[in-house]
């Protein structure tokens, strides 16, 4: 088990595997609003903490009202979103927040640094997570804890992201959990 890894759950099969491992936290991706209560009940029963990716909950808008509803109704450990307004609302509700940013080029990097400063999340998830140079720059320019996600599927890539300043690595590749 790698202490820096945050398993990203995409299916019931992934969740079953996650429960058999020693990880305390996970990221929940691609779920349906109708399944959320049951999934979170199982997580609680197995003493696991969940970071919910608000943007990927089917049947739910990804706006301030949605995050408020999710936090009040389900009390996740934290939320993840690409939307600064969602992050700001979640922070006001005393929930751990992660702003997810996609860095495609230098313009996206500059824009993301500004958004991070505006939203003031607890964590920033940088995608793709194999972008070591970007992880280092965002960490230095914002002072935020970094989560590297996307395209990471080897131990070497995990180590490089950590050496570049990532605190955690998210991956849905169950082979490296």
UniProtKB/TrEMBL annotation:
Q: Which residues cross the membrane?
A: none
InterPro entries (UniProt xref): Aldolase_TIM, GlpP
The signal sequence is none
Pfam families assigned: G3P_antiterm
So which domain of life are we looking at?
Answer: Bacteria
Q: Which SUPFAM superfamilies does the protein's record reference?
A: GlpP-like
Can you tell me which residues the record assigns to a coiled coil? none
Q: Which UniProt key words apply to this protein?
A: Glycerol metabolism, RNA-binding, Transcription, Transcription regulation
Query: What task does this protein carry out?
Result: Regulates expression of the glpD operon. In the presence of glycerol 3-phosphate (G3P) causes antitermination of transcription of glpD at the inverted repeat of the leader region to enhance its transcription. Binds and stabilizes glpD leader mRNA.
Q: What is this protein called?
A: Glycerol uptake operon antiterminator regulatory protein
Q: Which organism is it from?
A: Mammaliicoccus lentus
